[in-house]
RNA sequence: GCGGACGUGGCGGAACUGGUAGACGCUGCAGACUUAAAAUCUGUUUCCCGUAAGGGAGUGCGGGUUCGAUUCCCGCCGUCCGCACCA
């Protein structure tokens, strides 16, 4: 009688065994091919959620599989441990951010360990510890010396009550999310990293990332936003504050003869100059600046302008004057903050021209319509031929662009340029719980880097969160230091670094973590780039772009011979669960509702409940499932199995009770196969074939990260084994099955491995080898179709000749009946596949 | 608005390069074992007609290419995601 697999006992036992043996510690000096498998490290919020479980399970399967296929695997784990929630907790619960964070890390580490991940815990790191952020400070100073760090005034969202800077997403309807105070735009001196220096390289580098999802590459491409165009100067009819020219940027220099106005942004210096002398202009500028910046605001915002009364001269015809407007739809921080409007070929300009009754001249002919007078309100921005444009007439858009740029450059009033949407990376945060920026401000010497032998600049522990504002700034002593250069009293920088800096190089520190340097070059290069990086698509742009930038910066400084940090990237889907909403709009957890006939009602009170959509698990929608009790009940392997089953990993995985129970049943079924295995005699060719096809198929699917398909293939094999009679083949299949499930259900596999008296650990075992001779069937099923419709199937030896297949097909009873004596018009035979009779 | 992805049974999904649509799992239904339940096992589960043999329809909708289309092409519809007045 087969026993039951008892995960409670087995999980802990094997986890301890792996731990004691340091099974998953990566050897930097190993001679084997190296494989670096990494999942995005978590923020230590306090609890692991199902999304983490799914993410880390995927990486774990790959890591374990790589070990079994002869690789030395680096699969580390750490904590993205700086950031706002710790400060919020400090304010709300009166607990020090460090204490809160470290307690969370301890709790989450325990949770992760219960899932039996093949992690090298000896390399664990937390970004909030001085041994990590001190090395980050060293790197920051290297960047500073290399001229990749600079300081400039920049506008931030300032909460006047909390006295802190808010991220854009913390500003809701113009108010601070916590204080509710109206957020001000304030100029602060901030530190920036010169990511724009690498714009071209970050863009072209995408081309080599053939193991990244196209979607992510496209998002990065759009974010970087390269556009070629012409930057040129209009001559102003009269000088304004000494300026005689107005510089504009356009990507459509070809439409220059369709221009009917010029517009500048509300915060353009020209607008400010006009506002000096006009109360009306001043009002208009103020109105533009107060406008909301949310997506909805922008979409609904009407195109508004203010006629300055100024004009500029058309570059190709000085007496042709264009009016200059201040317009609310022109952005100061793109291009030059000034544009020329071509209503016929740009919708925004069209809207504006129709409102202010400006000319709309056609300069690109769409088809045969070449009238200068443009009717309608829909601008034409498609392809066409230039018309009404003098020397450009008849040219294509591309040729005309080149011609105008050439003339501008010849005549010296403009030049072809490239503009980027990408901005430099502002890294200053006016907060406590982050990496202190290792700079000292001296009256005499300016900003001076902290000498490296004085690193780390450690956060003070004795801080209070009673009063709003940056605790570092109001700490009584911390910021007062002497200038390292001249020795005079000076002031420490009290801003800390954006936490995206912490995650921009942690994967390097995992590969190599000496005490006295950020990393050892040779060790880091031995592992990098990360072979497979797995995480959520929400990091598709910022984190991944910053990490690519940081790696390039190290490369440029000669510190690392790697430019792309992540060779392979995979973005996994979310774990979702159904939602339920009561009549008053409040959310109910799935455990609080039940089905009454066709309708859903609350268990408590029986109120009717509306089933909502299946959505990402979130506390606010009350549809989360805590992994801990699930692991208690079903064990790590069943949870892991469910995370891998059914849904393709890039898609969302709907959590369900039935699903986890199905996984649990299968784990038990596997155990019954193993435990109840009987030696047998003789071979079972069909089973041998199924086994070897599964060995090859599962390996392929895992390499492909198609875990759902690998799971399905293992199910098929298990079904086949169960149906098979005892034989030597069956015995062998069960023994090999143990290794096939080892990456997914490692505890069960170890148990089975031990049961069969194998040496060592299955975690160290070799992946079974598939016999190529057994991968192909010797008998195939041939479809016989009439006019493409299946009418019969034939079982024939593989490789049967066309003529044989044809005559076999025609001899079939069913086919003869269908044809009813009619002569086939044509017969198509695809060997080993089908015969299609055209009647 | 721009860009992208997706659309297959009651559900999650599978299907190689254009070649038997629905693998595998979940759910449901019927049955076996059991005093009973749990657990387990067997059968069945795309829809329609038919007792059956069998036939017909079918991969969002409409067309096209082809001996043959879930797969390729054109046009719609829907859902989701990203960006968003970027000149």
From TrEMBL:
It is an enzyme of class 6 (ligase). GO terms for molecular function: aminoacyl-tRNA deacylase activity; ATP binding; leucine-tRNA ligase activity. ATP binds at residue 619. It is found in: Cytoplasm. It catalyses: tRNA(Leu) + L-leucine + ATP = L-leucyl-tRNA(Leu) + AMP + diphosphate. Residues 684-800 form the Methionyl/Valyl/Leucyl/Isoleucyl-tRNA synthetase anticodon-binding domain. CDD domains: Anticodon_Ia_Leu_BEm (cd07958), LeuRS_core (cd00812). The keyword tRNA-binding does not apply. Its main location: cytoplasm. Keywords: Aminoacyl-tRNA synthetase, ATP-binding, Cytoplasm, Ligase, Nucleotide-binding, Protein biosynthesis. Residues 221-408 form the Leucyl-tRNA synthetase editing domain. A motif ('KMSKS' region) lies at residues 616-620. Residues 422-578, 615-655 form the Aminoacyl-tRNA synthetase class Ia domain. One of its GO terms (biological process) is leucyl-tRNA aminoacylation. SUPFAM superfamilies: Anticodon-binding domain of a subclass of class I aminoacyl-tRNA synthetases, Nucleotidylyl transferase, ValRS/IleRS/LeuRS editing domain. Its EC number is 6.1.1.4. Residues 605-627 are annotated as: Disordered. A motif ('HIGH' region) lies at residues 42-52. Signal peptide: none annotated. GO terms for cellular component: cytosol. Residues 40-171 form the Methionyl/Leucyl tRNA synthetase domain. Belongs to the class-I aminoacyl-tRNA synthetase family. This is Leucine--tRNA ligase. It comes from Parasphingopyxis marina. The gene is leuS.
């Amino acid at each position: 009688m087969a026993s039951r697999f008892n995960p409670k006992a087995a999980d802990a036992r094997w986890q301890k065994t792996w731990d004691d043996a340091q099974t998953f510690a990566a050897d930097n000096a190993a001679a084997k091919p190296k494989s670096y498998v990494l999942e995005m490290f978590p923020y230590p919020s306090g609890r692991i959620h199902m999304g983490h479980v799914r993410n880390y399970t995927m990486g774990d399967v790959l890591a374990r599989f790589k070990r079994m296929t002869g690789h030395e695997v680096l699969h580390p784990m750490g904590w993205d441990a700086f950031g706002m929630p710790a400060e919020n907790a400090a304010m709300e619960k009166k607990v020090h951010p460090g204490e809160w964070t470290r307690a969370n890390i301890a709790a989450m580490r325990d949770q992760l360990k219960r899932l039996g991940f093949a992690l090298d815990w000896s390399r664990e790191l937390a970004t909030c510890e001085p041994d990590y952020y001190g090395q980050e400070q060293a790197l920051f100073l290297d960047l500073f010396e290399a001229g990749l760090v600079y300081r400039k005034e920049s506008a931030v969202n300032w909460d006047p009550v909390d006295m802190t800077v808010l991220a854009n997403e913390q500003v809701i309807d113009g108010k601070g999310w916590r204080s509710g105070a109206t957020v001000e735009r304030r100029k602060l001196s901030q530190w920036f990293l010169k990511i724009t220096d690498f714009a071209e390289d970050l863009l072209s580098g995408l081309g080599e990332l053939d193991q990244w999802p196209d979607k992510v590459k496209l998002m990065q491409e759009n974010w970087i936003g390269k556009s070629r165009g012409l930057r040129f100067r209009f001559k102003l009819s009269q000088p304004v504050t000494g300026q005689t020219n107005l510089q504009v940027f356009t990507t459509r220099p070809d439409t220059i003869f369709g221009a009917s106005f010029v517009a500048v942004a509300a915060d353009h210096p020209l607008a400010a100059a006009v506002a000096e002398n006009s109360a009306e202009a001043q009002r208009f500028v103020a109105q533009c600046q107060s406008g909301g910046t949310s997506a909805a605001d922008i979409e609904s915002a009407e195109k508004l302008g203010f006629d300055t009364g100024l004009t500029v001269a058309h570059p190709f015809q000085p007496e042709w004057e264009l009016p200059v407007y201040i317009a609310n739809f022109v952005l100061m921080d793109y291009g030059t903050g000034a544009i020329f409007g071509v209503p016929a070929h740009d919708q925004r300009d069209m809207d504006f021209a129709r409102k202010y009754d400006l000319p709309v001249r056609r300069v690109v002919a769409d088809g045969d319509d070449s009238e200068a007078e443009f009717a309608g309100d829909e601008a034409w921005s498609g392809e066409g031929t230039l018309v009404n444009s003098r020397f450009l007439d008849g040219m294509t858009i591309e040729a005309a662009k080149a011609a105008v740029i050439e003339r501008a450059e010849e005549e010296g009033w403009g030049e072809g340029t490239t503009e980027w949407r990408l901005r430099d990376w502002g890294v200053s945060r006016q907060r406590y719980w982050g990496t202190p920026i290792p700079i000292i401000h001296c009256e005499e010497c300016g900003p001076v880097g902290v000498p490296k032998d004085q690193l780390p600049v450690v956060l003070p522990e004795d801080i209070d969160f009673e009063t709003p504002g940056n605790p570092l700034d109001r700490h009584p002593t911390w910021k007062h230091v002497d200038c390292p250069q001249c020795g005079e009293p000076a002031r420490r920088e009290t801003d800390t670094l954006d936490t995206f800096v912490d995650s921009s190089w942690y994967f390097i520190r995992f590969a190599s973590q000496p005490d006295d340097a950020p990393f050892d070059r040779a060790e880091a290069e031995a592992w990098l780039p990360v072979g497979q990086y797995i995480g959520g698509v929400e990091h598709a742009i910022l984190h991944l772009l910053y990490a690519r930038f940081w790696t390039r910066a190290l490369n440029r400084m000669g510190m690392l011979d790697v430019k792309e940090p992540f060779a392979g990237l995979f973005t996994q889907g979310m774990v979702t669960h159904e939602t339920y909403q009561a009549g008053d709009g409040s959310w109910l957890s799935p455990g609080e509702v039940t089905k009454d006939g066709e309708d859903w009602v609350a268990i408590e009170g029986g109120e009717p409940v509306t089933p909502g959509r299946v959505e990402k698990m979130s506390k606010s929608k009350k549809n989360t499932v805590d992994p801990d009790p699930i692991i208690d009940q079903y064990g790590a392997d069943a949870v892991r199995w469910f995370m891998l089953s059914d849904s393709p990993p890039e898609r969302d995985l709907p959590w369900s009770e039935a699903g986890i129970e199905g996984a649990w049943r299968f784990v038990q079924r596997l155990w019954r196969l193993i435990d109840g295995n009987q030696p047998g005699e003789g071979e079972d060719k069909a089973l041998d074939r199924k086994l070897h096809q599964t060995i090859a198929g599962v390996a392929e699917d895992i390499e492909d990260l198609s875990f759902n398909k690998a799971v399905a293939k293992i199910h098929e094999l298990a079904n086949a084994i169960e149906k098979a009679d005892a034989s030597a083949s069956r015995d062998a299949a069960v023994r090999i099955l143990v290794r096939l499930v080892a990456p997914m259900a490692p505890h069960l596999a170890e148990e089975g491995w031990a049961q069969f008296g194998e040496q060592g650990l299955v975690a160290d075992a070799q992946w079974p080898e598939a016999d190529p001779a057994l991968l192909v069937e010797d008998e195939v099923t041939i479809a016989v179709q009439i006019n493409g419709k299946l009418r019969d199937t034939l079982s024939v030896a593989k490789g049967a000749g066309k003529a044989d297949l044809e005559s076999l097909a025609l001899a079939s009873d069913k086919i003869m009946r269908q044809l009813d004596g009619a002569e086939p018009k044509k017969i198509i035979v695809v060997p080993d596949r089908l015969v299609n009779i055209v009647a």
